[in-house]
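Q: Joint fold for the lines below.
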Amino acid sequence: DQQVKQNSPSLSVQEGRISILNCDYTNSMFDYFLWYKKYPAEGPTFLISISSIKDKNEDGRFTVFLNKSAKHLSLHIVPSQPGDSAVYFCAASDSRGSQGNLIFGKGTKLSVKP
Amino acid sequence: EAGVAQSPRYKIIEKRQSVAFWCNPISGHATLYWYQQILGQGPKLLIQFQNNGVVDDSQLPKDRFSAERLKGVDSTLKIQPAKLEDSAVYLCASSLRRNNEKLFFGSGTQLSVL
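A: Joint structure:
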């Protein structure tokens, strides 16, 4: 059973427009959420995170929104740039758990076209 | 600051052979993780070390997989004997402390089992 779901395997966006990547989770114990970005042949790199006590976190062009009641979070990239083309993974953890291990979604491949 | 180092980058073996992967985490990072990423999936945790002790190995197929982190620094993950379904990218990650969700990943080892 997938605890973190990214239902869109791919997304194509025009340069300069907004990219919205979605993520749903099922475990109500999750209290910390992260987005990782992965280029081919590289490991994932941390992008942005949000604690469950917040509903929004912003870092430059990247904003993550959290809707706890819907168990849904989204990553907004504005404006999108060709260099943003990568696979984006949503991850979640229960930081109060004994390990706080990250559970990853399957990823969404974002293509930003010039 | 040097990142997480992994070797080899690629490995091709036949089923029933053995293989080993090496990881050197970021200096000072107490927690080390091995993840398995099958094509089209998100990374899945195999084992987590805190210094040289195992914190979580609940998803490690212990009949064929083993890992060690001698002296609490670098780590080795071994598969013996390999199966076709072990074909995946094996990612090593480290974090400053346990329950620190900001993981730093290496570039991974891509394993193909024929």
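Q: Anything notable?
A: The longest strand of chain B covers residues 88-95. Chain B touches chain A through 23 residues (CB under 8 Å).
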